[in-house]
């Protein structure tokens, strides 16, 4: 299904855009369509399993992708997803494909992401889902495994924030080591640091990271950061205004009934 992104670009691209769905110079005011889309209400956080651990091996789409028309299936909307934040039934899901060694991913995390959390996720309008895409070599794969080790203890978002905060002024690849990962885990409040270190280095998440990398390539994502926003695709750490514009368009589709938000079970 590697043609899925080419299909989206051909259907939705804007003249003058280098690669993303919308041109980098596009600007927009605060979207007005958001008031018309019904916010999600299923906001319960994922719960650990009987062993006290979260499902940190989660990989891939919400359902099988068999054609480019299945773009909405990229979004998992899984109640046990420890990498996600926001209502399960939010009208729009943003599926991010990122690499902890990527300076542009760090730029997005340190500029645009907080606006998305404050203006959309907190209001039930958007759900953010993370996908590993470690394209920058072995250090990137090591970092992805460490991220999953934090997720297994329910601290992925805090860990991600600690790591990207530490790299906000680095223009290249930070080339973190396990000692850096442990430091970020400490800042994130990961409770069992010995278990974290073991999970990050003993092969526990080797298969999951390899599968995540393969999944991104299979649907045509070959650079980071990349984002599926509803039905649209945005490539790169674009300005906040680009995300606002695309979100407004996707919310308007839901408000008009062009896109139906799937029913999701409440977390008991």
Automatic annotation (TrEMBL):
State the family named in the UniProt similarity comment for this chain.
Belongs to the thioredoxin family. DsbA subfamily.
**Per the database record, which ranges form the Thioredoxin domain?**
24-252
What is a single Pfam family found in this protein's UniProt entry? DsbA_N
Annotated region Disordered: the residues are 25-50
Q: Where is the composition biased (Low complexity)?
A: 25-46
* Name listed for the protein in its UniProt record: DsbA family protein
Q: Which InterPro entries match?
A: DsbA-like_N (IPR049564), Thioredoxin-like_fold (IPR012336), Thioredoxin-like_sf (IPR036249), Thioredoxin_domain (IPR013766)
């Amino acid at each position: 299904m590697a043609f899925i992104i080419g299909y989206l670009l051909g259907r939705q691209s804007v003249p003058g855009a280098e690669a993303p769905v919308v041109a980098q110079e596009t600007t927009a005011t605060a979207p007005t369509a958001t008031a018309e889309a019904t916010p999600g209400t299923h906001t319960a956080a994922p719960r650990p399993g009987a062993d006290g651990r979260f499902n940190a091996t989660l990989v891939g789409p919400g359902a099988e992708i068999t054609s480019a028309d299945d773009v909405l299936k990229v979004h998992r909307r899984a109640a046990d997803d420890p990498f996600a934040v926001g209502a399960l039934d939010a009208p729009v899901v943003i599926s991010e494909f990122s690499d902890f060694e990527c300076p542009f991913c760090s730029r997005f995390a340190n500029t645009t992401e907080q606006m998305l959390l404050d203006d959309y996720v907190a209001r039930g309008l958007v759900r953010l889902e993370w996908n590993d895409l470690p394209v920058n070599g072995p250090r990137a794969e090591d970092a992805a495994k460490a991220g999953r080790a934090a997720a297994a203890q329910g601290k992925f978002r805090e860990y991600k924030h600690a790591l990207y905060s530490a790299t906000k002024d680095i223009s290249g690849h930070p080339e973190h080591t396990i000692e850096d990962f442990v430091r970020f885990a400490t800042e994130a409040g990961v409770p069992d640091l010995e278990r974290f270190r073991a999970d990050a280095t003993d092969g526990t998440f080797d298969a999951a990271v390899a599968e995540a990398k393969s999944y991104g390539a299979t649907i045509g994502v070959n650079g980071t950061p990349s984002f599926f926003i509803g039905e649209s695709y945005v490539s790169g750490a674009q300005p906040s205004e680009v995300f606002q514009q695309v979100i407004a368009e996707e919310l308007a589709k839901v408000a008009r009934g062009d896109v139906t938000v799937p029913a999701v079970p409440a977390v008991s």
